[in-house]
Amino acid sequence: MNVSVKKSMPVGTITAPASKSYTHRAVFIASLGKNECELSHALLSADTLSTMNACKMFGANIEEKTDPETNEKRIVVKGFGGKPKTPEKPIDVGNSGTTLRLMTALAAVADGEVVLTGDESIQKRSNAPLLKTLNEAGADVISVNGNGCAPLLVKGKIKPGNYVIDGGMSSQFISALLLSCPLLETDSKISIYNDLKSKPYVDITIEIAEKAGVDINEYLKWEKIFEKDGTESEKHVLIYSIPGNQTYDLGDYTIPGDFSSASYLLTAAALIPGADITMTGLFPSAQGDSAIVEILEKAGADISWDKENGVIHVSNKTGKRLKGINWDAGKTPDLVPTLAVLGAFSDGETRITNAEHVRFKETDRLKAMTEELTKVGAVIEETDYGLFISGEKSKNKMKGAPVCGHHDHRIVMSLFIAGMVIGGVTVDTAESVQISYPGFFEDMKKVGAVFEN
Fold first, then answer.
1. pLDDT digits (tens, 9 = 90+) for 319-340
2. Residues 308, 399: one domain?
3. What CATH number is associated with residue 328?
4. Which domain holds residue 338?
5. In the predicted model, what is the mean pLDDT of the chain?
6. Are residue 168 and residue 288 in the same domain, yes or no?
7. Would the annotation count 198 as a binding residue?
8. pTM
9. Which of the listed residues 219, 242, 265 is the one where a domain comes to its end?
10. Where in the sequence numbering do the catalytic residues fall?
11. Is 351 annotated as a binding residue?
12. Phi, psi values for residue 133, rounded to 5°
């Protein structure tokens, strides 16, 4: 689907959609328990539906309900009590990397053989660090095509013990291990070498697991490291200690609003003269992308956050341009496309660093944003680890043009915001917003965005 966006001035109030990250984990953790629980304000998107369907295949009973008074979506889960059954057919995770990683580790706890696959994008995303760790732990996990990507065949069970994994590619590998290890008979330990990227997502995993009564202990330890040249050094190693034979019991749980999804409209309101946007349902949580408030503040936006009531207000009544900033994206990879657009329309220079893990998402987002923003006149440079954007040099060059969404929901939504600023931007593969924000176009229309599809 193509969407053609005209210059637009957003004004109004929108309730933030539910967090995709929290919904994934809450559904999975509820499925690991045995008692029925109700998940309120849950996100029903393509990705979270993939997790729900996969959990059903492992034995969970999951139903969707709608509150007749509020029209709010709820999910009722009756789990399989930590004893997953073997799915009778391959699990298709669609486009969801989170689903694939969580279910791969769970499959290494189940009996029998489990096959996991997904769409074309998933079959290009590497899972090598997770497969290596699971195999070292006693399972037999095979990438059918021998490239570390799905389809995956999981046979044999992992054993409790000391696991070592590289944290530099994806935090989803760590979350998958953290949630499956409590089901093992005895204690386990996971040591993370290299900096753990996207750590807030692991924090979300631990937060919900602890809410379900599961203990996961985090600490740092100095350990000796032998470099390739034979030299010896010491570095901090992040370690998670997980007692075995634990039981999950999440109980009723309310999913918080999603800051990743909120970032698009908040950024549009900060950039566009005359815009005035209020977003509700955004309470403090472990989400790293709540940093969008700090980012917009640093860029000079008129923004306020009432944390007690979960309300963020952004306006640009004076029509001022924002200023470029430097941002370390190690903890906030999903904000990178939004920040690239922010930098293209801000004065000065914007540097996004520590973002090499953004290359391993639905698409290589550093490359994609460089290609697409260049088409609309931005002066942007892709580096090995991030992006350098000269808003100053881009200032008089920005113009509408057809751009590619790369079948990536975050690329599509960020380019849509660029279209609201300059007009004349047509984005293809726009249907991909269903992955994380099914109501995106409806919400944009509510606040005055002008577009055709």
1. 999 999 999 999 999 999 999 9
2. yes
3. 3.65.10.10
4. 3-17+257-452
5. 95
6. no
7. yes
8. 0.94
9. 242
10. 334
11. no
12. -65, -45
Which residues are 140's β-sheet partners?
A: 155
Q: What pLDDT is attached to residue 228?
A: 59
Does residue 250 lie in a domain region?
A: no
If asked whether residues 167 and 289 sit together in one domain, one would say no
- Classify each residue of 107-135 as buried b or exposed e, where b means 16 or more C-beta atoms within 10 Å of its C-beta: bbbbeeebbbbbbebbeebebebbbbbbe
Q: Over pLDDT 90: what percentage of the chain?
A: 91
Helix (H, G, I), strand (E, B) or coil at 356: helix
pLDDT tens for 164-204 read: 998 888 999 999 999 999 999 999 999 998 789 999 999 99
Query: Could you tell me if 324 and 214 lie in one domain?
Result: no
31 and 172 part of one domain: yes
Question: How far separated are the first and last CA of the chain, in Å rounded?
Answer: 7
Specify the DSSP class assigned to residue 229. T
Q: Are residues 272 and 232 in the same domain?
A: no
Residues 179 and 28 sit within 8 Å (Cβ to Cβ): yes
Locate the DSSP E strands across 132-287: 140-143, 152-155, 162-166, 188-193, 217-226, 232-242, 253-254, 276-280
Q: Is 410 annotated in some ligand binding site?
A: yes
Structural domain count, the chain? 2
